[in-house]
Amino acid sequence: MREGNLPRDSRCVVCKKVCYSSECLAGMRCEWCGQTAHALCYRQMDGNCQFGLLQKIMLPPNCLTIPRTELPMEQLLNITASSEQSTSRKVSSPCKITADDVSSGGDEGKEKEDYEVLRIFDGNNSLRTQVFRTASVPKTASAQQIRDAALRRFHIQDTPENFYVTQVINDLTGEEETLEDPVPLRNVKRPEGRRAQVFLRYRDDPDKAVVKIYGGWLRVPVTFCTLNVTKETVVQDIVSESLEHFGLDRKTWNRYNLIEVSLERGVAERTCNHHENMLQLVRNLRKDSLRRYHVIRFYVQEKEDPHDHAVFGAVYEDKKLIVLCLPNVQPKMLPPDSEPLLVLVNVKSGGCQGTELIKSFRKLLNPFQVFDVLKGGPLVGLYVFRNIPKYKILACGGDGTIGWVLQCLDIAKQDAACFSPPCGVVPLGTGNDLARVLRWGGGYTGEENPLDILKDVIEADEVRLDRWAVVFHEEERSQPPTAPAAEGGAEGEGMMNNPEDQTSMIIMNNYFGIGIDADVCLKFHNKRDANPEKFQSRLFNKTQYVKIGLQKALFERTCKDLWKRIEVEVDGKVIELPNIEGIIVLNLLSWGSGANPWGTAKEDENFSKPTHYDGLLEVVGVSDVSRLGLIQSKLAAGIRIAQGGSIRITTHEEWPVQVDGEPHIQPPGTITILKSALRANMLKKPRRRTRGRSPVPFGVVAYTPAPAYMSPRA
């Protein structure tokens, strides 16, 4: 719970009254579920947070273990702080207690009169390191008053009668002597030039002690159990008794360890030896440091509990690579109906809008379920979620980012508990064609509420997405004969390349193009690579496409007579091509920022109604660059050529081609598009109807017909 700064519309979940106040430090708010309450009412709230509306997709914090290091949380989450923040954080550790940890001025004045300032150590370790706290007490104070002052300085709330104070006789040996009434400070030794030194000690029972044992990651009905230990009790006995209190079989004690966890500096843990004497262990911890003992817990933990927190990164050829400390998810701690959401954000997509989006998602969800794909790629998040039996993915980026996520999912799912998690989309790119088909909108504007996006993910429907393998096979080219071969009479015969060296494959999700549309896309791609800092907004990107399209229309017609220079086969049948300069092969009815080259006219008897899960591709022809502009502006459609499940294109010269907006120059050869076995499950946003209005997909803004030559690239 966090105090103050409540939203204006906040209402108390207990009394149902408004709990917002203009006074900033008024009211309480749960940082996980967002519930608010008055300062007096919040104690009546349920102690267990249910995570509110996002319960189903939340990754609960109790199912995570994080690396046992002293790394700051910003580094664990891979958040880069600004230089100003970094400078302000360069302070001493809050756990280090020094002589400065005391009010000045007043104490010094009192010491000259009737008060004395004492150095108080909480154990042998603080004496060795000379880390102490100071307290000002009357010179006539009793031992009880000195003890109470020491307890206050160390913020120890236990029963005061369980503690006593001693004076330090020798700094090197740690020799001490109990302070005795009536006026104990009269006989205290004061080293020359220094203040009197006092130990705060716990009054141990020589025969027994009481310890709390926590269940930790075990699924048990109680948080902890309280056990009595004696001189004969060893760690093995504690584990057995704890299992019995937790409702587990005590005979299986050998499958568990007792872990001593200290929260003094970060999180540090130690596995206790099964034959270690428990009473002596507790007494040694108290004698070493009372303050540290109060931040130590004992957990029973399964031996096979891996805590195998992976570290991604290495040094390769003297290059510095990214290193990430990843959390480990305990699947058995997840609620039965939980489907945690893995959020993957490309912060540089669509004018770097992802930066604000990733901050919002980290506030609404568990920060360890939100990842920046530019720091390690999508495989980092998929690796963290590998043991979760059922989860969803939200990919935030353009069509290129979505393809990257699906490609990494193909790699990771082979060894994952969830073989094919459904994937939703937040459109941050330029084209966002896949997002349009799945109703997620044409582009994230920054005005959408991230909470509403997460609600839509919960309600979204699962749909299939066909995926296709585009196989490029170059013509077998002969190499010039070597000198010995020429002497051997092999003149005129070349050495053939290995056919496997001339073959490559790309997985297609959206569309494929060859000819004029790929040529425009390639020119834009080259300009962006030359000056990436200029291409940071959708509007600028589209204006560049206009310029490139005009150049092609007026001065360059490199794709003229394409229909005469290539051959196309669909399902094994040769297709007679019309007079065209480009071919687009569609898996989606959205291309180039929402255009539909196939057209919206009724299907005739030759073609069936296309979808993204029917196992068919649509082949469309583009007559020239002006027709490409009309298609892009949604004022016309292309020429329907064919529809089928496999396509083969044969070329005899170099042609520009593009797959899902990624262009390149393809040498002469064959291009085969076949159905891939790598299907994907996607999340389709549900329709939302409002009274008196037609449904509008989330994230769609008022549409103005786009200029010609816009890219199909994400």
From TrEMBL:
Entry-linked InterPro entries: ATP-NAD_kinase_N, C1-like_sf, DGK, Diacylglycerol_kin_accessory, Diacylglycerol_kinase_cat_dom, NAD/diacylglycerol_kinase_sf, PKC_DAG/PE, RA_dom
Feature: compositional bias, Low complexity: 484-499
Single biological process term from Gene Ontology: phospholipase C-activating G protein-coupled receptor signaling pathway
GO cellular component: membrane
CDD domains reported for this sequence: C1_DGKtheta_typeV_rpt3, RA1_DAGK-theta
Region Disordered, residue ranges: 83-110, 476-499
Reaction(s) catalysed (UniProt annotation): a 1,2-diacyl-sn-glycerol + ATP = a 1,2-diacyl-sn-glycero-3-phosphate + ADP + H(+)
GO molecular function terms listed in the Swiss-Prot or TrEMBL record: ATP binding; ATP-dependent diacylglycerol kinase activity; zinc ion binding
Ranges for domain Phorbol-ester/DAG-type: 1-49
Main location: membrane
EC supergroup of this enzyme: transferase
Transmembrane segment boundaries: none
Alphabetically ordered keywords of this record: ATP-binding, Kinase, Membrane, Metal-binding, Nucleotide-binding, Repeat, Transferase, Zinc, Zinc-finger
Residue ranges occupied by any Ras-associating domain in the UniProt entry: 117-205, 207-305
Subcellular location(s) of the protein: Membrane
Gene3D superfamilies: 2.60.200.40, 3.30.60.20, Phosphatidylinositol 3-kinase Catalytic Subunit, Chain A, domain 1, Probable inorganic polyphosphate/atp-NAD kinase, domain 1
UniProt keyword annotation of NADP present: no
EC nos: 2.7.1.107
Coiled coil feature spans: none
Domain spans labelled DAGKc: 336-474
Recorded family membership: Belongs to the eukaryotic diacylglycerol kinase family.
Name listed for the protein in its UniProt record: Diacylglycerol kinase
